[in-house]
Design goal:
This protein is mainly α. Helices cover 76% and strands 0% of the residues. It has helices spanning 33-54, 59-81, 88-99, 105-124, 129-138, 140-197, 202-235. The longest helix is centred in the last third of the chain and has 58 residues, at 140-197. It is rod-shaped.
């Protein structure tokens, strides 16, 4: 292997948790936490394959493995950094998933450290690289299981948040419908009073008719909102 064609980048992932959204790496922007966690599974398997090919002298795969590790590490840091942004119950669930008694955090950290060490050994053509590769391949099932567990946790948090929002929306729609019903009664009574007032009730009748039109529009909007809430509930 020609060592001059390799350049190992020993990096410390950026602290993306304190950055504004516009400062996040491009590969993170626009991705939901669930999708980001799911991508980690794919990246882990891709890195293992890239590293195996790099160990056979493929410089391009070596560089690709380094890039994948950078993306993986920054994404992992971002996922953990979102704990401060989640509601208490959700944050506790994610915290337990990673750092609880059966947390997956140590396995993921071990995987990243082993990947970095293996790439450095490939660069140096160290005799110990073969042992590291065996260890890396042996870690495949464990890292995949750990990342699956993390993805499931983020998925459950996302669904719980969606359900809570739909419940709140349904409550708001119910309140609006109640107000609309009361407004209808007021409008109906106002029209009766305007009719009784005859010539003197014309202006009042105009106001009553406008109020009736408004309540009709409110009814239409609340029905649409209710349908949307039901669709989102089914989709979740």
């Amino acid at each position: 292997m020609n060592t001059s064609s390799y350049s190992v980048t020993t990096f410390t992932p950026r602290t993306v948790t304190t950055l504004q959204k516009r400062e996040l790496p491009a590969h993170i922007q626009g991705l939901s936490l669930v999708n980001l966690a799911a991508r980690q599974r794919m990246l882990s398997q891709r890195m293992i394959l890239q590293t195996l090919l790099a160990s056979r002298g493929d410089a391009q795969k070596f560089e690709a493995a380094q890039r994948s590790l950078q993306v993986f590490s920054e994404s992992q840091q971002h996922l953990l950094g979102t704990l401060q942004q989640l509601e208490k119950a959700a944050a506790e669930k994610i915290e337990s998933t990673y750092h609880g008694p059966r947390g997956v955090g140590p396995v993921i950290t071990e995987f990243m450290q082993l990947m970095q060490r293996t790439l450095e050994q490939i660069k140096r053509q160290a005799p110990s690289v073969a042992e590291s590769l065996i260890e890396l391949v042996g870690l495949t099932d464990r890292i995949l299981e750990a990342l699956n567990t993390a993805t499931t946790a983020f998925d459950e948090v996302s669904k719980a948040k969606s359900e809570a929002m739909m419940k709140e929306l349904a409550g708001i729609v119910g309140d609006i419908q109640s107000v609309a019903k009361e407004a209808k009664v007021v409008s109906f009574n106002a029209q009766i009073m305007a009719a009784r007032a005859g010539q003197h009730g014309r202006e009042f009748a105009v106001v009553a008719n406008v109020l009736s039109d408004i309540t009709g529009e409110i009814d239409g909007l609340t029905r649409k909102a209710a349908v949307l809430a039901d669709r989102n509930k089914l989709a979740a």
